Amino acid sequence: MTDPRPIEANIEIDAPPREVWAVVSDPRTHGGVESPVPAHARLRARPSGRASGQPQPAGACGSGRSTAKVVRYEPQRAIAFRITENRTVWSFELGETSTGTRVTERRETPDGLSTLSAFSTDRLLGGTAEFEEGLQRGVEQTLRRIKAEVERG
Fold first, then answer.
1. 129: alpha, beta or left? (left if phi > 0; alpha if psi -120 to 50)
2. Rounded distance, CA 25 to CA 20, Å?
3. What is the spatial distance between Cα 66 and Cα 84, in angstroms, rounded to a whole number?
4. 38-76: per-residue pLDDT in tens?
5. CA-based angle 56:60:63, to the nearest 5?
6. What CATH number has the domain spanning 7-44+54-152?
7. Which terminus of the chain has fewer Cβ atoms in its 10 Å neighbourhood, N or C?
8. What is the pTM of this model?
9. How far is CA 98 from CA 14, 16, 101, in A?
10. Rounded distance, CA 128 to CA 134, Å?
C-alpha cells in the first residue's frame, strides 16, 4: 500500500521542555494522555550510564494489542516509537519557545502500512480517509490533554 499522509499537529505549552518531556517520554502515561488508538504500554528501561541517572528506553514497549520499539530518543527534544504490527512511527518533538514549549506529535508511515493493517483499515475501520480523519482529531486531542496535564502541574 502507498504511504498514507502523515498525521501531525502541534501545540504551545506554558512550561519548560523538561516538564513537557516528563509526560511525553513516558509511555506508561500515554493511556491517559496519548494515542488516538488506545494502548497501555509497558516501558522497559535500563540505566543510561549518565550522571543524571535517568533511564533510557531499552528499545521496546508493548501492550496486549501492539508492540513498539523506540527508534529515536533525544532527551528533552524528541522520542519516536515504531509500531511493529502496522509499521507506523509515532513521535513527539519539543522545541523551546519564548513562553514555553512547542510540541509536535506526528504519525508517519515511512515503509507504508502492513498488508494486514491496510486491509483492517479499509474493511473494519471505515476506510483510510475516515480513519485518518479520526487519527488527526485524536492527535489534536492528545496534545490538548498533554497541555492541560503539564500546565496543571
1. alpha
2. 8
3. 7
4. 343 444 444 344 444 444 444 444 444 678 888 999 999
5. 125
6. 3.30.530.20
7. C
8. 0.74
9. 10, 10, 8
10. 10
